[in-house]
UniProtKB/TrEMBL annotation:
GO terms for molecular function: DNA binding. One of its GO terms (biological process) is DNA replication initiation. It comes from the Eukaryota. This is DNA polymerase alpha subunit B.
Length: 604
């Protein structure tokens, strides 16, 4: 078994530092938890990404933490099988031993339920807001939270600078603790436009409505569209039924499936072709002859190979992306166009390259200790100093898993907390910055007549001709747990984060994984239109629990001697709040190309 475990680690691109000791412990893990070597390595990959380990080296020092991760997975599996079973944690035991529990008289300062008055300041002053806590009497308490006591603020964790030295963002890498910063507002003549490409749902649509017919049609259409694109490129012939025995080399298009429950492995890969070409039949797919590949359930691929027995398609080439299209989205009718004024909307930008500055942050926006939204306040303070053109905030805004919400200590609804906390802070920020900070937006559902707009999830929009796609579902984490990959035999290290992000673009879908991860509200009656990425965006924002990153992903290659390449900047800003402390966000200056950008991941 140890040799199989070692082979699985090497296949996934990992090396073993203390091989003998690590394999001995991994063998014990497999025996204790009834795991196959492939399942063990899949769990390690999830642990490796979640812990944000920098090197693809398995170390003996990480085995203790990995054991805890495996135990957590076992607990989750038991809870899923027996939903009514309560699993006690060390925290529960401490509460019982110290007579603490839900019946104890507990006063939580600063939660929305304790606030009978909302303090509005005419001037945006973060120093007065950050550590202040509004009590029911309206007075400001002196409660100091762990987040407020932190010493390091706005520390650059990662920086990418492709701009000339004279064009870099002034002071972007400096700490923002100076009290004498001068606020330089955007000049009135610098106006910006925004176009939203995602249409809103019709009234009465229900996300929980998912028919088998809709699911079948969505998957069938994905396979057919990929097949049509590959044939139209002229590089591939018309696909045939892969389940028919043939000694000749054939070309087939289908969706990767797993034979049974669990994760993909070399023996469980199936290819499901379309009803048009094979009646929807599945055939076992063998990839042993390929030097490298990366597959996951739901991925639509083209396969060149042969099927001598009719039971197994032996692949000699795998095509995991469709040919690129550089055409603009002429068939997309914007749901609504928002701009500063009609004159700006008609402005053309043919001569100068597009330039835009952004700050991107993803929730949660408050720490687990309270609902004060201190990280959001700090972020808006930073954005105030930087005078950013576009501020992108991605949910969750109110986390249903927040301890105070789960304990029932909050008397307000999610919508009320969102209005009183999140929107109020953003409105104060916009009121201070003036009308030139961002395009004039509206938020119809909440009747907010300020410079804010809400987007569908996923959503695509253009800001000054920079096309931006975003999706808050953690597809990167879901793919990391389901992907099966093999690297080149030359030992060249693979950038797994870039590869995970490239799957989204190559599959032209914000959520190409099927079946979806548990808890994902995927409605297949809406999926084809809502999830489709018709052309590669300039920026792709994918918030995830795995390690933050800014990666330039290249798609395409050479075709008939003509280069066809498209670059996209893929961004995982991390989470603005992590536990009781702060997380990260991204500041970006983009000048029309990934080769001309300045990006920093900043710890708050």
């Amino acid at each position: 078994m140890e040799e199989k475990i070692k082979a699985e680690f090497l296949k996934s691109g990992f090396t073993l530092e203390d091989e003998e000791e690590i394999l001995k412990k991994c063998r014990a893990f497999c025996l204790n938890y009834s795991l196959e070597p492939s399942d063990l390595v899949s769990s390690w990959e999830v642990y490796y990404l979640n812990r944000q380990l920098d090197e693809s080296v398995v170390k003996d020092a990480d085995m203790y933490g990995f054991l805890g991760h495996l135990q957590d997975e076992q607990v989750e599996a038991v809870v899923k099988r027996e939903p009514g079973l309560h699993m006690y944690s060390f925290k529960d035991v401490d509460m019982i031993l110290n007579d603490e529990g839900e019946d104890s008289n507990e006063v939580v300062l600063g939660t929305p339920s304790d606030k009978s008055e909302i303090l509005h300041l005419d001037e945006y002053n973060s120093a007065q807001k950050t550590n202040g806590n509004i009590c029911s009497s309206g007075r400001i308490s002196k409660l100091v939270t762990p987040f407020g006591k932190r010493s390091n603020k706005f520390v650059v964790k990662l920086k990418i600078d492709n701009l000339p030295t004279t064009e870099t963002m002034n002071g972007m890498h400096h700490h923002e603790n100076l009290e004498d910063d001068i606020i330089k507002r955007i000049q009135p003549n610098k106006s910006y436009s925004l176009v939203v490409h995602r249409s809103w749902l019709e009234p009465g649509c229900r996300f929980i409505y998912d028919r088998i017919e809709d699911r079948f049609n969505a998957l069938e259409n994905r396979i057919r569209n990929h097949a049509a694109a590959l044939v139209a490129s002229g590089l591939y012939e018309e696909p045939v039924d892969p389940s028919v025995a043939s000694q000749k080399s054939i070309f087939a298009v289908g969706m990767i499936c797993c034979d049974g429950e669990g994760h993909l492995n070399d023996k469980s890969i199936l290819l499901q072709s379309s009803v048009e070409h094979s009646g929807g039949q599945r055939v076992r797919l063998e990839l042993n002859k390929l030097s490298h590949f990366s597959v996951f359930p739901g991925q639509v691929v083209g396969i060149k190979g042969h099927n001598p027995s009719g039971h197994c398609l032996i692949a000699s080439e795998l095509v995991d992306s469709v040919p690129l299209s550089f055409a603009a989205d002429t068939n997309l009718r914007p749901a609504k166009k928002q701009a500063l004024d009609e004159e700006i909307q008609a402005t053309k930008f043919p001569s100068s390259p597009t330039e835009i500055t952004l700050i991107i942050a993803a929730g949660p926006f408050t720490t687990t200790e309270n609902l004060l939204f201190e990280p959001l306040k700090e972020l808006l303070t930073y954005a105030t100093r930087k005078c950013t053109q576009l501020l992108i905030l991605l949910g969750p805004f109110i986390d249903s898993e927040h301890p105070q919400i789960k304990k029932g200590t909050v008397d307000l609804s999610f919508d009320e907390v969102f209005r009183l906390e999140v929107l109020r802070m953003v409105q104060d920020y916009l009121g201070y910055m003036g009308s030139n900070a961002q395009p004039a937006f509206d938020l119809d559902p909440l009747d907010i007549k300020h410079q804010i707009t809400s987007l569908t999830n996923p959503g695509i929009f253009e800001a000054d001709e920079v096309k931006i796609g975003c999706c808050t579902v953690d597809i990167l984490k879901h793919l990391s747990g389901e992907e099966l990959s093999r690297h080149s035999v030359d030992g060249t290290p693979s950038d797994r984060l870039s590869r995970l992000a490239s799957h989204i673009l190559s599959q032209r879908s914000f959520y190409p994984l099927y079946p979806p991860a548990e808890g994902v509200p995927l409605d297949f009656s809406l999926a084809p239109e809502a999830l489709n990425i018709s052309s590669v965006p300039d920026l792709l924002i994918l918030p995830s629990d795995i390690k933050y990153f800014v990666k330039v992903v290249s798609l395409g290659g050479t075709s008939e001697g003509e280069e066809q390449m498209k670059k996209c900047v893929c961004i995982n800003p991390g989470r603005l709040a992590k536990g009781e402390g702060g997380g990260t966000f991204v500041e970006l200056k983009y000048q029309g190309s990934p080769d001309k950008m300045n990006a920093s991941i900043i710890g708050i």
